[in-house]
Amino acid sequence: MVPTAAVSTAAPTAPAPPRIELPEAEMEGEARRLAAACGVTLPVARILTARGITGEAVEPFLTPRLDRMHDPLLLADMGRAATRLADAVAAGEAIGIFADYDVDGVTSCSLLTELFTACGATLHRYLPDRLKEGYGLNGHGLEVLAEAGCRVVVTVDCGINARKPALRAGELGLDLIITDHHEVEMPMPEAFAVINPKRPDSAYPFREICGVGVAFNLAVAVRRELITRGHFGDGEPPDLKSLLDIVALGTIGDMVPLIDVNRAWVRRGLTLINGRHRPAFRALAHAAGLADKPLTAGQVAFQLSPRINALGRLGDPTAGVALLTSRDPREAEPLAELCQKENQRRRGIEGRILVEAVAQAEAAGGAARRAIVVSSPKWHPGVIGIVASRLVERYHRPAVVLAVAEETARASVRSIPGVDIHRVLTGFADRLLNFGGHPYAAGLTVETALIDELADYLHATLEREVAAARWQRAVRVDSVLRFSEVTLRLMEELKRLEPFGMGNREPLFLTRGARLTRLRRIGDGSHLAMAVEEGGTTFPGVWFRAGDRLEALREAGPVDLVYRLKLDDYRDQLRIQVQIQEVV
């Protein structure tokens, strides 16, 4: 590999111009029929049609409801797990939770903590140290829980491929209940119950819930079983709907598609988050400078989730559980401040690693390689996943970032749309010490001596198997618009499409022949503000991170704009703003 001290003298690889993908012409007729049938504007009908949301699917999408939640018992082993945990609650038996250290694991652990505490159960938790123990279920954590008196242990957001630790659980006399959502590699671990929507024999109709979604299904099943047994007597059972703010945080933070049941959970959860009923969300919003602002799914993803994740990346993830389960604002505020400090530290470390990683990538050929593979013994393993994502954004290539520890290296892997990196890595799995993940994200451990071989394997495999068109960044437009069609009614209808995120991205529009005037730099000079005019209609516009394009745009004539639409409360007046994404 290229040493980290090496500095490339070549100019950074220039990003290739994107390929603009327009809606298929044959969809226009269906969009017009949908607009007439549902009473929505044509641009919104085009968005729905392009996303395959037509006919009977429209109403559930526009109005997601919790009463459409799938029956948890459709998940294989769910009934068995709920019965065992209800037995433990009834008998006063100690229950252990083994959780991953990221926002999905922390929210899952917090949710089950709230459930079992409300049920009067004795509870012990274990969240591993990322640097010392790495990812996933391990024997040491199980031993700690067994020594604490647990006889049943629930994993959250981990364990699906932990065969050896599962055997250790059996040796310790533990009934191990694995709840996870990562890809299943057969054979599954030997455990009391294995709950995962990706099990081949699962009847649950939606595969793409994350760890906290699986945990919420478990909570519903356990509560139902306890109610059937009369456990709560004349008292009220736990209100699980009040936990949907935690479910929303984990679901958004884990970047699963915001469709189907995820959409209903997040829609209700965002309402709770914006009500600031839980001290954690008041404190986190204040720490992020968003104390008095309504939070969108995007702000939760990019402002709140990273602050929880920073704890597990750099320090102690148990502080995240303490924050989310706290009832006392005086306790929550210093915990949120800790999240803020760790997140700032994380950003500093990330920035330094990214500079070195880009230098390595450029020296190795940059985007000429089908995968970016970089490594260093100086890099913090808790931050390499974020750096991998930044490299994917920069090069539009799958990226593998490895933190080397003498003879072995731990990697975070991120991919691009249309490239299932988990499947590709499976072909190299016999040379990996550890491996798991998703089509777009994976983690692995490899011998340091095999890093070059891994890089060559990825390049050759991707070159052979992935179509050339995939290597050009594509921007998919949802609707071509004239500015005269951009109205407050359209903005209100776009709100019904929220929450936006993975699987339901914020709509992009294309307007041809627009003119940019009154261009100026704003902020620290890296952003542009302007007036945008087309067909006699003018809107204020902004283009983030485009300050270096000021002079070129001043000399440009009419341009085609790809943009998002935002409602901007400017000087206490509501106005529509064009947020530019591309000029073509």
Task: Walk me through this protein's architecture.
The protein has helices at 27-38, 42-50, 58-62, 78-91, 103-118, 130-133, 139-147, 163-171, 211-228, 244-253, 260-275, 279-287, 297-314, 318-325, 329-363, 384-395, 421-426, 451-465, 488-495, 550-555; strands spanning 19-21, 95-99, 123-126, 152-156, 175-179, 193-195, 372-376, 399-405, 408-414, 432-437, 441-447, 474-476, 479-480, 509-522, 527-534, 537-543, 559-570, 573-583. It is of the alpha/beta class and 584 residues long. The protein folds into three domains: 19-63 and 477-583, OB fold (Dihydrolipoamide Acetyltransferase, E2P), CATH 2.40.50; 67-338, inorganic pyrophosphatase (n-terminal core), CATH 3.90.1640.30; 364-471, Diaminopimelate Epimerase, Chain A, domain 1, CATH 3.10.310. The strands form four sheets. It has a five-stranded parallel sheet with strand order 3-2-4-5-6, sandwiched between helices. A five-stranded mixed sheet has the order 7-8-9-11-10, sandwiched between helices. Strands 14-15-16-18-17 form a five-stranded mixed beta barrel. Helix 5 (103-118) runs antiparallel to helix 10 (244-253) and helix 14 crosses helix 15. Residues 1-14 have low confidence and may be disordered.
